[in-house]
Amino acid sequence: MASPVFSSSLLILVLFPFTASLLFCNAFPVLHYPLHHYRHPRFAHHNYRDALTKSILFFEGQRSGKLPPNQRITWRRDSGLSDGAAMHVDLVGGYYDAGDNVKFGFPMAFTTTMLSWSVIEFGGLMKGELQNAKEAIRWATDYLLKATAHPDTIYVQVGDANRDHACWERPEDMDTPRSVFKIDRNSPGSDVAAETAAALAAASLVFRRTDPTYSRLLVWRAIRVFEFADRYRGAYSNGLKKEVCPFYCSYSGYQDELLWGAAWLHKATKNPTYLNYIQVNGQTLGADETDNTFGWDNKHVGARILLSKAFLVQKVQSLHDYKGHADNFICSLIPGTPSSSAQYTPGGLLFKMSDGNMQYATSTSFLLVTYAKYLTQAHKIVNCGGAIITPKRLRIIAKKQVDYLLGDNPLRMSYMVGYGARYPRRIHHRGSSLPSIAVHPAKIQCSSGFSIMHSQSPNPNILVGAVVGGPDQHDRFPDQRSDYEQSEPATYINAPLVGALAYLAHSFGQL
């Protein structure tokens, strides 16, 4: 995630000439593009299979550590090979979260949970991409196991974010401090700890059949990490405020992660202890709140959808309320219903905030197709104040969000790099924007890269599959590298999209 220090540069940048057409579209984007203007949802004109392949490939471009021989994004090289040395621990590996060179444990864990959930629900539809998806998950879980190796301690960040953001350099060149930050009994972080437990538990289900030994290790570690999260309660950004804010502050508190973590451990272990935990603590952890946000920081809705399956499909009657909570979320998305509250751009994109908004479109799309699956299995529907919402309707809404992302929008712009004829060329990403090691072997110094960051030249390295933050509330997208809010990709934008694309590719006979 980029630092706000670059936002002022937007005022002085001049748009590259070829984007003049975008300005014209931006001047009149709204009323000329009613929703019915786009393709009918019965017809697939997007290549969801191609998009699925690319959405998973993206994670290889975000890898930190020693790259494997089968690395497919070949303009990347090894990086961060001494990570953890400052604390005498091995923290090599894992992912850079976005366009910078810091490893933030909170969004990395959420990314892992959502990649795993994507495989759990739709891995059977992925066919040739299933192995790639599993490798993307394992790259993360191998790191999370290292970060949780010591009891009651989690290493939650590698890299000084403020120093990192003062440089524009390739991960292979980075010379900023690789400081290590941790949570422990004295400085707890229930949010990041419970999310890490959720990630390990969810991933244990992914590997249960193909690698049972690894799966058991993951679930055992998840149990231990969750106990730590619950016993020593507190938000990690209280103790690490200077290090993690404003990048990944825990704005929603840690209650949602405790419920989310318990839900995943219940799913992974079937241990009644976690069901009892949910029943006893569910109300105080915010299960019945009306917060309808789902993303790296806020897990309320995800927990509701996940727990609703236990009631709908497994018939766990004590979780009956979660069906109602999940329905409330669905009704909030449906325009015209009594509890409708979601905001959409004129072109039809779900819009929640200006910074990295596309994560809400991808995460919501995943929840919609997943809840539709649960409802179908249980032969249920959603009643929104008398309006009957079928699983089919949920899938149509999800498809419209994905189609918008892939190019059905006023600018006819794909927001996935490398997909379609027109996509962002100047994404806010250091490695993508600077010449690769193969082209420019000499080190690029910390501040030397800013001349390229502020330039109008397209990125020389295509980060295939990267989904950027996306357009503003008026469907405008300037394609400016300095505009981190709209032009920066992130792992947690892609992770839920993997599942949604797998479903769509299968539904339209592309897998």
Automatic annotation (TrEMBL):
Molecular function per GO: cellulase activity
EC number: 3.2.1.4
Keywords attached to this entry: Carbohydrate metabolism, Cellulose degradation, Glycosidase, Hydrolase, Polysaccharide degradation, Signal
Stored PROSITE patterns: GH9_2, GH9_3
UniProt keyword Signal present: yes
Active site as annotated: H428, D479, E488
Any one GO BP annotation for this protein: cellulose catabolic process
Domain spans labelled Glycoside hydrolase family: 48-501
Signal peptide: 1-21
Family that this chain belongs to: Belongs to the glycosyl hydrolase 9 (cellulase E) family.
Protein name: Endoglucanase
Species annotation: Nyssa sinensis
